[in-house]
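Good morning C.,

I know you're traveling, so I'll keep this short. The sequence:
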Amino acid sequence: MSTLFILSHAPHADPNEAEKLNLARPGDAVALIEDAVYGAGAAPTPMTPLLEAAASRGVQVFALEPDLHARGVTTTLPTVDYGGLVDLIAAHDRSVH
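The tokens, ready to paste straight into the viewer:
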């Protein structure tokens, strides 16, 4: 059973939200939306090592492109648009926000 973890809070505003990344297992995915996209930027945040660890465990990590653009954040992570986010939700058995 795969899970999509949707994170929406900025890493510096809610460090506990990034802890959800520790729950992600191979086959799961993470979508960074709203202010969570700050965790996908070049500057290290409390989320950075957790994102790296999740990716090394086989968890796919995505950032929502419109939210990156709105906040002026650039990333090397794969990005999705709103339709892609809907596809991620549909592709997983459950979503946790």
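Safe travels,
E.
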